[in-house]
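### Sample
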Amino acid sequence: MLCLAQTIHTQEGALPRPSISAEPDTVIPPGSPVTFHCWGPVGVHTFRLERENRSQYRDNYDVSLVSPFLSGATFRIDSVSEDSAGHYRCLYYKASRWSQHSEQLELVVKGTVADTEASGFDLL
């Protein structure tokens, strides 16, 4: 008996683009905290926050279900400095692949200088 098998290849569509926001704002005085929020579809395994040209990043496996259709993760910098300023973006890992990047968010650090100069993003 001869059996012929036919394989049908389907190209999976691109994963939905994630979104990014910053709280309390994108303009932060030195020494103040900022929290980045990354949002994506349900089923995300990992969110990644990248800084500038992908040379610095932080992964978060603690993904929360925000709604029946939305998941999210947060990334906090406890005390921003001028070194924390720059462009940030999110992406996520789902279904064995990485999503495209979110739009860039520019963090601006300006105002009265606090006592600390630690950026808190040294882990990235």
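The beta strands are 19-23, 27-28, 34-40, 46-51, 56-60, 64-67, 70-77, 86-94, 97-98, 105-109. This sample (Leukocyte-associated immunoglobulin-like receptor 2 isoform X4) is used throughout the tutorial notebook.
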